[in-house]
Amino acid sequence: MDDKLIRVEVVYALAHDQRVVELFVPEGTTVFQAAERSGLVAHFPEIDLESAPMGLFSKLVKQPKTQVLRENDRVEIYRPLIADPKKARANRAAKQ
Asked: What is the Cα–Cα distance from 87 to 24, expressed in whole angstroms?
């Protein structure tokens, strides 16, 4: 019996470069597995899949190695923050 394939997207973005990869993966594929299969690490070697935060439709996934994907899910690999958002907000407020 053949595994049913589902369509998902895996995305990663920098300010100057972004990629969206469409994949067809077997049902039961996890967020982490889709990120691995996307090949984005070859284009963005700075990505460390073991430590990179990942999400689905802008919502952080706490356990990407166990979170199973559904048809048309959009996996997002997040890059590290350059600055703490709270501190940046406070700095902007102080300047005003």
From this structure: 41
pLDDT, one tens digit per residue, over 54-88 is 999 999 999 999 999 999 999 999 987 666 667 76
Tell whether the model's pLDDT for residue 92 goes beyond 80: no
* pLDDT at residue 1, as a whole number: 46
* Whole-number Cα distances in Å, 59 to 7, 16, 76: 19, 23, 9
Structural domains in the chain plus CATH codes: 5-95 (3.10.20.90)
Q: How far is CA 57 from CA 24, 40, 42, 94, in A?
A: 18, 18, 23, 33
Burial 37-49 (b: 16+ CB within 10 A, else e): ebebbeebeebee
Reported as type and span, the H/E element at residue 14 is none
